[in-house]
């Protein structure tokens, strides 16, 4: 690039360089436009949530707020109506926390143990079991919705948070097992053999050899499960009742409640509140989030 | 005894999960299949009556709309997301210094709940105050963009929001694929003076066939399961013009009290998923054994 040679080819080179620079600019402009496309909804959500209703009615969709007000955020958090109740998102946000934390921990733990068995303690039929579990990841959940509703009723946990935890654990096992199995399968089996020779048992080997090696896959699985469960709507809307709904269901109720004036700023603030936990996880540990996404699809 | 225990512990540890999957996946599918053959309405009945529910289903104009929508939505969603994702991946793969930041921006929608996405786009595409009003205020008085409230076009509004959410993910898949293409082959082609577009169309893209397949499977799967996005964006409306099989099933199960219809529509959904996923899983599992 930097060497200057005086030759007839020089002028042509320069022409080619200009072409390359123009192409480079075009590339940046294209990438910038795409970035705007992806950012625009977030920008609109944030600015709308900070405007007053009056300003929303008179101003432009993409304008910055003339006067920043957090009133909509306060209403969304503690005053907006989901049907007849007007307590905002707060109780439902905590429902989601109380639901997601145990469900994520239990399903991740089960996935780790299952993956350890399938990858390292192969026995006859283990592969078939794995295939059957893997298959369970792909079913449309509509096909289990009705019997699950019946079963939760029998068990007396219909419409409760423990009921939802149960459902999320059951249908999360397939994916968590897949993640851990694919991770443990790369660890040489000699490790287990050597440990067995040294007299270590099944749990000892898991606890002191495999778990310490598992931090990256634990992070991937926890993030995956947390995102899935926090963002779930289908199970939440099917198996909860007034008071036990997760945040996604409450958000939808706030937005689609037909009573009173449509408060778009409150809707947007509520949407951001509902999205915040997973967005924060993504911002902090995006690398692991992406790894989970691609592990679920490419390696599957 | 000790030895027996030691030998069987792995199986005993796996057993609870396996039994759970057997009951709650396969047993429940069996339950739904069984009930889909009965006259169940508000409560499940267990006397098999044949295929009446399926006859009703396929005669229902609402189900017809739902399947038609799935076809339109699925096709557009998959094609646009793949084209857009691939395009962005190729553009990003030109040694861009800000790649990390851009990638983060393109992919963040994937972290959001579909309900959040639907809520945001419902507001943006709202004719009275959203994009339509904005463009009109720029002086284009006749500009209309009222897809969310137009029964004939509302399904395309769902496509826009769905593409926005998932195309970044497709981008990430393709970017990983582009990075795994053998650099030596590309260098050799460049030395031979083969134009860039030919390198892409003849060497790079064909070598990424498995990624096209994965992207297709994942997107098709997302499309068939699409439920929350429609609920949040259009509520299935106007009327039932944006119903998808998933919203139909939900409506039958939980608001219409028609368990027979809910079960039979769920079975059809599963058949569609299986038609797409089973060949894929089969080839994947076979490839692993080879």
UniProtKB/TrEMBL annotation, chain A:
CDD domains: TM_PBP2. Residues 93-285 form the ABC transmembrane type-1 domain. The chain crosses the membrane at residues 21-44, 97-117, 129-157, 163-184, 205-226, 268-290. Keywords: Membrane, Transmembrane, Transmembrane helix, Transport. It is found in: Cell membrane. It is a multi-pass membrane protein. PROSITE patterns: ABC_TM1. InterPro entries: MetI-like, MetI-like_sf. Belongs to the binding-protein-dependent transport system permease family. This is Carbohydrate ABC transporter permease. The lineage of its organism: Bacteria, Pseudomonadati, Pseudomonadota, Alphaproteobacteria, Rhodobacterales.
Automatic annotation (TrEMBL), chain B:
The chain crosses the membrane at residues 12-34, 70-92, 104-124, 154-178, 199-224, 259-282. It comes from the Bacteria. Its main location: membrane. Keywords: Cell membrane, Membrane, Transmembrane, Transmembrane helix, Transport. Residues 67-280 form the ABC transmembrane type-1 domain. It is found in: Cell membrane. It is a multi-pass membrane protein. It holds the Pfam family BPD_transp_1. InterPro entries: ABC_transporter_permease, MetI-like, MetI-like_sf. Belongs to the binding-protein-dependent transport system permease family. This is Sugar ABC transporter permease. It comes from Aliiroseovarius salicola.
């Amino acid at each position: 690039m930097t060497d200057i040679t005086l030759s007839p080819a020089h002028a042509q080179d320069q022409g080619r360089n200009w072409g390359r620079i123009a192409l480079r600019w075009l590339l940046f402009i294209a990438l910038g436009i795409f970035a705007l496309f992806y950012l625009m909804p977030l920008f609109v959500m944030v600015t709308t949530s900070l405007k007053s209703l009056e300003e929303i009615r008179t101003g432009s969709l993409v304008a910055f707020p003339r006067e920043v007000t957090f009133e909509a955020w306060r209403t969304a958090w503690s005053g907006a109506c989901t049907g007849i109740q007007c307590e905002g998102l707060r109780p439902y946000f905590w429902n989601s926390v109380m639901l997601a934390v145990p469900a994520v921990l239990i399903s991740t733990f089960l996935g780790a143990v299952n993956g350890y068995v399938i990858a390292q303690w192969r026995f006859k039929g283990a592969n078939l079991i794995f295939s059957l579990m893997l298959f369970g990841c792909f079913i449309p959940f509509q096909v289990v919705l009705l019997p699950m509703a019946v079963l939760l009723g029998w068990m007396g946990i219909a419409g409760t948070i423990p009921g939802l935890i149960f459902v999320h654990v059951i249908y999360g096992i397939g994916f968590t097992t897949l993640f851990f199995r694919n991770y443990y399968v790369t660890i040489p089996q000699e490790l287990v053999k050597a440990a067995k020779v040294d007299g270590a048992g099944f749990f000892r080997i898991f606890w002191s050899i495999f778990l310490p090696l598992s931090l990256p896959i634990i992070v991937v699985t926890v993030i995956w499960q947390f995102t899935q469960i926090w963002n779930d709507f289908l199970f939440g809307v099917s198996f909860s009742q007034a008071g036990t709904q997760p945040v996604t269901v409450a958000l939808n109720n706030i937005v689609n409640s037909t009573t009173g004036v449509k408060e778009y700023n409150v809707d947007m603030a509520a949407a951001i509140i509902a999205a915040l936990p997973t967005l924060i996880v993504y911002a902090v540990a995006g690398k692991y989030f992406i790894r989970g996404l691609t592990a679920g699809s490419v390696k599957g | 005894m000790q030895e027996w225990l030691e030998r069987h512990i792995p199986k005993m540890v796996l057993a609870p999960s396996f039994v759970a999957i057997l009951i709650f996946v396969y047993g429940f599918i069996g339950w739904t299949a069984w009930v889909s053959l009965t006259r169940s309405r508000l409560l499940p009945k267990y006397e098999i009556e044949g295929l009446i529910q399926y006859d009703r289903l396929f005669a229902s104009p609402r189900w017809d709309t739902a399947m038609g929508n799935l076809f339109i939505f699925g096709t557009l969603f998959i094609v646009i997301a793949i084209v857009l994702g691939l395009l962005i991946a190729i553009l990003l793969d030109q040694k861009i210094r800000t790649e990390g930041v851009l990638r983060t921006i393109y992919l963040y929608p994937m972290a959001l709940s579909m309900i959040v996405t639907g809520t945001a786009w419902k507001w943006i595409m709202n004719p009275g105050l959203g994009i339509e009003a904005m463009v009109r205020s720029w002086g284009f008085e006749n500009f209309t963009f009222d897809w969310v409230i137009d029964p004939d076009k509302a399904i395309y509004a769902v496509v826009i929001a769905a593409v926005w959410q998932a195309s970044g993910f497709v981008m990430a898949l393709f970017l990983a694929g582009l990075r795994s293409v053998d650099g030596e082959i590309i260098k050799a082609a460049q030395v031979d003076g083969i134009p860039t577009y030919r390198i892409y169309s003849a060497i790079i893209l064909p070598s990424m066939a498995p990624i096209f397949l994965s992207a297709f499977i994942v997107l098709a799967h997302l499309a068939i399961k699409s439920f929350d996005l429609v609920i949040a964006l259009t509520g299935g409306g106007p009327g039932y013009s944006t119903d998808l099989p998933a919203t139909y099933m939900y409506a039958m199960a939980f608001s219409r009290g028609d368990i027979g219809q809910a079960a039979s529509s769920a079975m059809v959904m599963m058949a569609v998923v299986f038609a797409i996923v089973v060949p894929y899983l089969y080839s994947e599992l076979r490839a692993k054994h080879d």
